[in-house]
Amino acid sequence: MKIAIDGPSGAGKSSLAKGIAKRYGIVYVDTGALYRAIGLYAQRKGIVLEKIGEICSLLGDLEVSLRYEEGEQQVFLFGENVSGLIRTPEISAYASAVSALPAVRSFLLETQRKIARETSVVMDGRDIGTVILPDADVKIFLVADDRDRARRRYEELCSKGLNASFEEVLSDMRKRDENDRERDIAPAIPAEDAVLLDNTGFTVEQTLNRALEIIEGKISK
Ligand code: DC
């Protein structure tokens, strides 16, 4: 079984995908973590956002991988577990910038497809239904009102003790979503056969229940 969950940041893709993975006993793959790890690498290499293309010449030596420890996905950069370092606003901006580079996207393509060939997955990202798994059994494009999405991100950052204002989170998120949606390669738009799920005002449980209805409906066909 292959399930694709795409949509903008903060729409609740990861909570939903985790719920689906648990329900069906399949593997949850958070593909954004791969772009974030490359973003972290670019930042560590001292590349500034305006010259992000410089990362392309370093991809030949780059090692990024996903592993599962006690059911939780961990992302490794040259063997170092960087899962705890990639969720800051700075690395979010780097991840969005590197994700617009065709060389980065083709570098990560096989890593993602390989996992889905080996096991049943629910994969979340921006181009899973359109590019990575065009033959997925179910494709859901999850959206929510942008203030709702920014509020979730804001609360997540506050709970980690990171300092940010709500307005800052909202404007960063709008900027990144625009980058992700407007880029030339693999833009974050729904696949033609994706089901749009707007979860504005929904709880995590309500979103999961609606998604399970969509999945059961598709699979029973
Ligand atoms: O889902 P996320 O916020 O962790 O993703 C980080 C960035 O990576 C985001 O700006 C979009 C990009 N991304 C992408 O282009 N394609 C994916 N499949 C996953 C993430």
Output mean pLDDT. 95
Assign the CATH topology.
Rossmann fold
Q: What spatial form do the alpha-carbon principal axes imply?
A: globular
The CATH superfamily name is P-loop containing nucleotide triphosphate hydrolases
Strand content: 15-25%
Q: In terms of per-residue confidence, which ranges show pLDDT below 50 for 5 or more consecutive residues?
A: none
Structural class: alpha/beta
Features:
221 residues; alpha/beta; 5-stranded parallel β-sheet; 3-stranded antiparallel β-sheet; binds 2'-deoxycytidine-5'-monophosphate
Structure, explained:
With 221 residues, the chain is of the alpha/beta class. The chain has a single domain, classed as Rossmann fold (3-Layer(aba) Sandwich). It has helices spanning 13-24, 32-44, 89-99, 102-118, 128-132, 146-159, 166-182, 204-220; strands at residues 2-6, 27-30, 64-69, 72-77, 80-81, 121-125, 138-143, 195-198. The strands form 2 sheets. A 5-stranded parallel sheet has the order 2-6-1-7-8, with helices on both faces. It has a 3-stranded antiparallel sheet with strand order 3-4-5. Strand 3 (64-69) and strand 4 form a beta hairpin. The site of 2'-deoxycytidine-5'-monophosphate has 14 residues, from helix 2, helix 3 and helix 7. 2'-deoxycytidine-5'-monophosphate binds next to helix 2, helix 3 and helix 7.
